[in-house]
Design goal:
The complex is a heterodimer. Chain A is of the alpha/beta class. Chain A contains 3 helices and 5 strands; from the N terminus they run E-E-H-E-E-H-E-H. In chain A, strand 2, helix 1 and strand 3 form a beta-alpha-beta unit. Chain B has 21 helices and 10 strands. The longest helix of chain B is centred in the middle third of the chain and has 36 residues. Classes of the chains: A alpha/beta, B alpha/beta. Chain A: InterPro entries: Anti-sigma_ant, STAS_dom, STAS_dom_sf.
């Protein structure tokens, strides 16, 4: 299944979903992101480096997190997608909204 | 190719040739131009009917009869959704009990949009799930059934969904007979018929749609355009969510682009109002204008929307901070306009569907410079990537129409998925039993279809193949029949009463071109129907002309003028009606009266030698035909419901049934 690690550094939360981010796991990621925002951290980087699979439900969870973060005045960025995961981004055109960043550290630089 | 299909194709070709031959001759040689006020409407109505016939022929061309389905993957996970809003508990219970008894492993959920304790109790009693709207929906547009389903998608995680209306009782084998098709990874949806058990064989309200849930769906299936009809369908979750994501991207892109365009209008207007002393303000406005242009250029170059809007908002906020000190007193006057802009983002529609005109109306107000900048911010916030005006940002079930099914299906096709139609009754439903409910239901379906036609015209949808576009268009086209019906009523009345003939001459040419086409067209129906009854459908496609006309005009007003549709949920319980509701069919009664009166006048005119035998008898036949068509209305008004009807259906798991009895029509 999936494990979701959350760590916060200098006001930015880094969320790392490890494993398959599919329709079953999407709900947990959505809840995890909502919790981060509710906890007062409004800037989030989702590190997809350890995500081996992503489907549309997983993307849906990312968009939900984005909405929550933006409404709280912050933002959500995604980083380090594998080629397989990036292909899903391109298939749905979501990369036109949510541009994946090459690494976590610089995700909030621009 | 089966013999049936071969025969069908022969008839299709012949019908098309005869039809084109007739209509060409009519246009070129026989329009009575001096009586243009009736001649032109008539030729247009005839052309309408001709195109309808051609589209029907095209549908039949690839009629696909699927035999037994492939075996399902035993491990496929399924959520069974029963959607309810205000139906009686006992009715939902019947469906829920049958849903639990479905053989393939699954989880059953009641999607209770009414948030009712008795539904919760029912779910607990049966050991199934009860889903109500999550807290995010508070104060947000609810989007009726589409919203109900979208909400439930987030609460569940099965690979497939079986969607059932509260009154559609599923058979235990419904999943065994449909899931197998999904072993093909490209299949997104399998639709099965809607069939109603509380309808007598004579079907006075035209509830069953045997031609639609049969040859028409099979024909659309052949073109990979089988329709989703809202209930009794199995859907692949991945396909549906993908549609939601793609739509989110599309709407957001369009919304941001429109907001930037309106922002430019607001700023330019404010800039013009400035006096020579307002140097600081002018500079600020120019800066914002520059940033609007920059944001648009970044988007055009493929910049990610999230980044562009984030940067844009940050810059505008900064400029505003600098201005605030200079210009506090003017702010109050603008608050109203700004509130209006924000409301726009939270209105019933997504900004992508708000018309440019209404945006312009709001933004055309005079604003002070600071007000203009704030308005721009509000505008951009309203359509920002976070979709602040919606409960959930991703809406897989389309919300552009009161009938979510057709719009959603079109988007599924647009992404390249396959849908198919399995022609086997696997659920038994309930149809409205009184005239008023039936009229409400038909109006709702027709309005939904017209909304999709106006909002996302299939002919312009890039992701669809041309046959798919035409298959969607065919259904929309069939709902325009109300306007043609008006002409078909008026033309004989006009001839019989005042003797004006819309056709040049009733020559033998006319008969030799028209009659063979009419005969072939009926033959086409006969062959396509293969024994299923089609007469009721034919009657209702003309007899409900006021409903069809209202649906088109109200949907037009809704989409383009922002008017309400006056939409109501179809009542599922028969109303206690002791009174016969002649008032509901007044236009039809007036039409029948006019036709009958015209017949009498026609006879008198013939007797006194003011009319020709040929013209009078032809128009008499026409009048009689119209009256026979409309006679169904009398039956419908007199109908007392299924229990009261004397002829129960002879144990009839017979032919299937209806969203659009219009198509079930011709």
């Amino acid at each position: 299944m999936i494990e979701i690690d959350v760590s916060t550094e200098r006001g930015i939360a880094v969320v790392v979903p490890r494993g398959r981010l599919n329709m079953v796991a999407a709900k947990r990621l959505r809840e995890a992101l909502a919790e981060v925002v509710a906890g007062g951290t409004h800037r989030i980087v989702v590190d997809l480096g350890e995500t081996t699979f992503l489907d549309s439900s997983g993307l849906g969870a990312l968009v939900s997190g984005l909405k929550a973060a933006r409404q709280a005045g912050g933002d959500l960025r995604v980083a380090r997608p594998t080629p397989e995961v990036l292909a899903v981004f391109q298939l749905t055109n979501i990369d036109k909204v949510l541009r994946p960043r090459p690494d976590v550290a610089s995700a909030f630089d621009v | 190719m089966t013999r049936r299909l071969l025969l069908l194709r022969c008839v299709v070709v012949l019908t098309a040739l005869l039809g084109i031959n007739y209509i060409t001759w009519r246009w070129i040689f026989s329009v009575h131009w001096s009586a243009w006020w009736i001649a032109v409407p008539l030729i247009l109505a005839e052309t309408y009917s001709m195109i309808d016939s051609l589209l029907f022929g095209m549908t039949m061309w690839r009629l696909k009869e699927r035999g037994d389905p492939p075996a399902p993957d035993p491990d496929a996970t399924v959520d069974v959704f029963i959607t309810t809003y205000n139906e009686p508990t006992e009715l939902v219970r019947d469906t829920a009990v049958a849903a639990v008894a479905i053989r393939h492993p699954h989880r059953t959920w009641i999607l209770d949009d009414g948030n009712r304790p008795e539904m919760q109790a029912l779910a607990e009693e049966l050991g199934i799930g009860w889903i109500t709207r999550s807290p995010e929906w508070t104060g947000m547009p609810r989007h009726a059934k589409a919203g109900n389903l979208n909400n439930a998608l987030l609460a569940t995680d099965g690979e497939f969904l079986l969607i059932l209306d509260a009154d559609q009782v599923p058979a235990p084998e419904i999943l065994d007979r449909t899931l197998g098709y999904f072993t093909d990874d490209d299949v997104a949806l399998v639709q099965t018929p809607q069939y109603f058990v509380n309808v007598p064989e004579s079907d006075p309200l035209g509830s069953q749609a045997p031609l639609f849930y049969g040859p028409i769906q099979q024909g659309k299936d052949g073109w990979n355009a089988a329709f989703f009809c809202g209930s009794n369908a199995v859907i692949r979750r991945e396909a549906l969510i993908q549609v939601g994501i793609a739509r989110y991207v599309h709407d957001t892109t369009l919304g941001v682009t429109r907001a930037l365009r309106s922002a430019r209008t607001v700023l330019t207007a404010a800039r013009k109002e400035l006096g020579p002393d307002d140097k600081a303000v002018a500079t600020a406005l120019d800066e914002v204008l520059y940033d609007v242009g920059r944001a648009q250029r970044e988007i055009d170059r493929g910049g990610a929307l999230l980044d562009v809007t984030y940067r844009f908002q940050a810059r505008v906020a900064e400029i505003r901070r600098r201005l605030v000190a200079a210009d506090l007193e003017l702010v109050a006057a603008d608050l109203e306009v700004i509130a209006e802009l924000e409301a726009l983002g939270e209105s019933d529609e997504t900004l992508a569907t708000v018309s440019l005109e209404s945006l312009d109306r709001v933004t055309a107000r005079d604003l002070s410079p600071l007000g203009a900048i704030e308005a721009v911010e509000a505008l951009v916030r309203a359509i920002d990537v976070d979709r602040s005006g919606e409960a959930i940002p991703v809406m897989p079930m389309a919300t552009i129409s009161v009938t979510e099914d057709m719009a959603t299906c079109m988007r599924i096709h647009g992404l390249g998925w396959r849908t198919l139609y399995h022609d086997e009754v696997l659920a038994h439903g309930l149809a409205p039993e009184d005239l008023e409910s039936m009229l409400t239901q038909r109006l709702r379906w027709a309005q939904g279809t017209a909304q999709v036609m106006f909002r996302e015209n299939p002919l312009t949808q890039r992701g669809l193949s041309w046959p798919q576009r035409l298959m969607y268009f065919a259904t929309m086209w069939s709902y325009l029949s109300g306007f043609a019906a008006l002409v078909y009523i008026a033309a004989p009345v006009i001839y019989l009463t005042i003797g004006v003939l819309p056709v040049q001459a009733l020559s033998s040419d006319f008969f030799w071109r028209l009659v063979p086409f009419l005969v072939l067209n009926q033959l086409l129906f006969f062959v396509a129907a293969a024994g299923r009854p089609t007469w009721r459908g034919q009657q209702y496609s003309l007899a409900l002309f006021p409903v069809w006309i209202t649906s088109v005009t109200s949907a037009f007003g809704n989409v383009f003028l922002g008017r309400s549709l006056d939409f109501s949920v179809t009542p599922k319980v028969a109303k206690e009606s002791t009174v016969r509701r002649w008032d509901l069919v007044r236009p039809q009664l007036v039409a029948m009266g006019l036709l009958a009166l015209a017949a009498v006048v026609g006879v008198v005119r013939l007797a006194v030698g003011q009319a020709s035998w040929l013209g009078t008898s032809l128009n008499m036949v026409w009048v009689v035909f119209d009256l026979v068509i409309f006679s169904v209305i009398i039956q419908a008004v007199r109908y007392r419901g299924f229990a009261a009807s004397t002829s129960p259906p002879a144990g009839s798991p017979a032919p299937p049934s209806p969203p659009d009895s219009t198509e079930g029509a011709r």
